[in-house]
Amino acid sequence: MVSVTTRLPFFVYGTLRPGEHNHDHFLRGRTESEEPARMRGLVLYEGPGYPYAVEEADGAVAGEVVTARPEAYDELLRALDRLEDYVPGDPRNLYDRVDREVTCADGTVLRAWVYVAAPAVAARLRTHGKLIESGDWRSPR
């Protein structure tokens, strides 16, 4: 596991992707690069206007790897944690921020932060949620 102070890029798969409604609000002007990528070990479920990534060994999710500008990193991390209502160690979290391997379009594999459904949310989604079979929130559902 990576230290919480490590400045990893972010893997985004929903409303933070380019062209989606949270991208401009949170990422515009704060990134060095954004490139297509896939993260294995996740599946997507529909949420109320946004997706949830749930850890699942056989899954794969499409998204982008976003690298923050160094001078914007700390502010961006705080903003994304607020957006996802993530507080380290809080059992009421809807999402957990975890580091996982991601594969960029050029085949490069690196580690990135990703927000995944917290355990209680993931359990509910597995039982009652609507799976996004393609693993891509932008695909027709």
From TrEMBL:
SUPFAM superfamilies: Gamma-glutamyl cyclotransferase-like. Keywords: Transferase. It comes from the Bacteria. InterPro entries: AIG2-like_dom, GGCT-like, GGCT-like_sf. It comes from Streptomyces acidicola. The keyword Phosphoprotein does not apply. Residues 10-138 form the Gamma-glutamylcyclotransferase AIG2-like domain. This is Gamma-glutamylcyclotransferase. It holds the Pfam family GGACT. GO terms for molecular function: transferase activity.
